[in-house]
Every structure is written in C-alpha cells, then in structure tokens.
Write a structure and sequence with these properties.
Blueprint lengths: L3 H18 L21 E14 L5 H14 L3 E3 L6 E17 L3 E17 L4 E17 L10 H24 L2
Parallel strand pairs: 1-2, 1-3
Antiparallel strand pairs: 3-4, 4-5
Helix pairs in contact: 2-3
C-alpha cells in the first residue's frame, strides 16, 4: 500500500500538470454597442451593393452582415432604408484575415489565432460620397506545457462578436458624421 504522503505528492503533480495544460482565460471581446445619435432619421438609403473584398479567410457571407448592418444603422436613429426614393446609395465591402501562430518548444509553447474583420461603407448621392471604415480584432491564446493540450481555435461566437463590433463601430461613425460631430 502506498504511503499517504506519496499519494498526495502524485495527486499534486497531476493537478499541476492538468492545470498547466489548460487554456488560459481567453482574451475577452469588449462589446461595442450602437449609439442612438439622432432624434429622427435624417438619411434615407438603399443598399446598392455588398461584396467580399480580396481577403475573406473567415468566409463571412453577405447574409451574416446585411441584417446586422441594417439593424445597427436603424438603432442610431439617423438612417432609414428606403428603396423607393433614397437620398443615398449604400455600398458595403468587407474582408477578414485569420492568422495562426505557434511559438516555443516541447517544454512550453503558446499557440495564438486571431481574426481581423474590416468593413467599408460608402454613402453616395449625386453630389457627394461619404466613406467610412471600421476594423475589429480578436486574438485567442493557449499555453501548452510538456507538449500536452490542443492548439487555440477561434470559435464561431468569437467571429460573430468581432463582426458585430465592426458593424456597430461603422454605424456609429456614419451617424456621427451625418450629424456633424
């Protein structure tokens, strides 16, 4: 029968190994919200085009962006969608880049993966064009010890939250610009 202090030592070492191989607390995503800037809508718009840019590593679709963009613009209370007689045509181009990096060796290593989402919208009428851009970033980090554990991995919720931050940021920018801030 093993001695109690030997069992305690084995349990302690096992606990340390299990704890050290677990994922660090993930970087949290600070949520950007859409601000109600106007008291009544001042800009009517029609969506003229929406497209992915040169890079779309995260395979974001028009269907993921369009409802959230319309909602964010509406929440500012400055914009109203009007397909019959719009004041502005709206063009949206979006892109995303995903990176993965591992550093270290057998004893200790760190894996990181990140998402960058960038949006550009242009409000155009016959006299002017107003262009706005936003970029949102998320990085996930995971430490490994003694070669144990899985690599870091972006989850769908990370991507969705990062996308919403980019959308809310661009809606706030556009609203503030049209209000003259």
């Amino acid at each position: 029968m093993p001695k109690p202090h030997l069992l305690i030592a084995i349990f302690a070492i096992g606990s340390i190994l299990i704890t050290s191989c677990s994922q660090k607390q993930q970087n949290s995503i600070v949520t950007i919200t859409t601000q109600k800037i106007c008291t009544t809508p001042i800009v009517s718009y029609q969506i003229n085009s929406i497209s992915a840019g040169q890079f779309n590593d995260l395979q974001i679709t028009n269907e993921q962006i369009l409802p959230s963009l319309k909602n964010a613009l509406q929440q500012t209370n400055c914009f109203i969608e009007n397909n019959n007689n719009p004041l502005y045509n709206l063009k949206l181009v979006y892109g995303s880049i995903a990176t993965k990096n591992t550093q270290g060796g057998f004893w200790s290593s760190t894996s990181k993966d990140s998402a960058i989402i960038e949006l550009q919208i242009a409000f155009t009428d016959k006299n002017e064009e107003r262009i706005f851009t936003s970029k949102a970033f998320f990085e996930n980090t995971k430490d490994h010890y003694l070669g144990l554990g899985d690599s870091s991995k972006l989850q769908p919720q990370h991507i969705q939250d990062t996308l919403l931050n980019a959308i809310h940021s661009i809606a706030n920018q556009a609203a503030q610009n049209f209000m003259g801030f």
